[in-house]
Amino acid sequence: xxxxxxxxxxxxxxxxxxxxxxxxxxxxxxxxxxxxxxxxxxxxxxxxxxxxxxxxxxxxxxxxxxxxxxxxxxxxxxxxxxxxxxxxxxxxxxxxxxxxxxxxxxxxxxxxxxxxxxxxxxxxxxxxxxxxxxxxxxxxxxxxx
Length: 145
Prior knowledge:
Number of helices: 1
Oligomer: single chain
Helix content: under 10%
Number of strands: 6
Distance between the termini: 29 Å
Order of helices and strands: EEEEHEE
């Protein structure tokens, strides 16, 4: 296989409200952290362990404005995107590094703001996902083939 793939799919909870940054020319980006959890049982102590991974997410332009309007800390969201690393010079002269998820698609799973809009898709790419709550009338074991 000659091709490569850089794709991320996450379901998690916002660790903070969306922070907006506006640029000359009308473009903007929104940044927020997303927490995903892994729960397992320690076999030696039978203790339930929860491990949290934090992800830095970036959304752009209209998608960022939608996220800022409807999302707040603690909301659950499904995102798709790609991993992007970047570096910059800090004010003290040191080189800083970060790894971010550049979000290309998202679906709100729970929101505190605008509770009438439970599911909003990114305007850039509106595509159906398997997480569509409108298909709840199908039996759980109903296979399409």
